[in-house]
Amino acid sequence: MFGSKTPLFLPPMKIIVNNITFQNGSSQIDSYIDNVFQLLVKRFPEHHFCFLVLKNHHSLHSFNAPNTSVITINEINSFNLWRNIKLPLLLRKLKADVVVQSNGICCFNTGIPQVLLISDCLWLHKPTFIPTKVRLYYRLFMAKSMKKAKGIIAFSQNVKDDLSKAYPIAANKINIVYPAANCNSQPISIEKKREIKDGYADGREYFLFTEGNNPIKNVVAVLKAFSLFKKWQKSNMKLVITGLITPQKNDVLDKLSSYKYKDDVVILSSLNEQQTSNIIAAAYCCILPSRYDGFATAILNSLQSGVPVIASNIEGMKEAGWDACIYTVPDDVDDIANQMKLLYRDEQQRNLLIAKGLEQAGRFSWENSSALIWDSILKIISK
Question: Which CATH number fits domain 14-180+365-382: 3.40.50.410, 3.30.470.30, 3.40.50.2000, 3.90.420.10?
Fold first, then answer.
């Protein structure tokens, strides 16, 4: 897969991966960088890969091969000052040949070629879900970044279409490089499922929501649909909620004490990667009624684990799940609950979705994504 477009005599390069953003902690971006560059680091030992991370953001510190280095930045008081003054000086000192920017914004005071990674276009579709300062930053600098970037990696056709429409000048620079499922996402044995259910759900089957309390991911709809399901079915099923739980005003999870089925809701906020993968693989069904998603990697994690998915009928989810998911309107609570009920009653349909899901998840691979990223870097260097 690698090598067909690689020049025979490519001099050693220094590739900088800048994962310092104004929205640190994006699990999708972190996973993408980890999986893609772990493969590239091993495949191309003659090139040096340098990762820039914040002190308290440790997700990329696993890069410890001889041809890698990690530079930790202690603190950033002004993101603009960092990106356009301090970063150019650091890039010059490092003698960078190319820079991969992890949040779609260029450094404007350097001539070093830059590749932008863009996972979604939330600032175009749902700007009110973004902090005001971040929203303003996109408004001021995104068009300029689209013009300056030498290459742009969109995580899906959906994202590419949005970018091309909003920034026509960038259309010819955009390549689609899909994410894939987490490497730990795999089906598990019946015995292991029983162990997970005993440990986290009192031995019961459970529906799963993996997106924490991010309002855009719509945990409110999941809780309302679960209430209807419990009312209709009189079932002992539980609802497990995992993912990043952040303090926020009027958080629905803070009000669970008055929720009728509170004893059947389990919130797990401090899990490692393997625990998360096991909880996904033991679920009866994963429910993902997101109001927006550039590309729903969470769907692939569930499908690759042999777990059916009820998802929103939005482009970023349908592009990931294709015909292997059940789709609903994000805020149509009755429809979501009905799909939960139908899946609960129809084991044959559930098994069919599991088979389709495994096939769909297999269409995406980090090996292919790494090869496409490398081709994009080579294309830029050759210019």
Answer: 3.40.50.2000
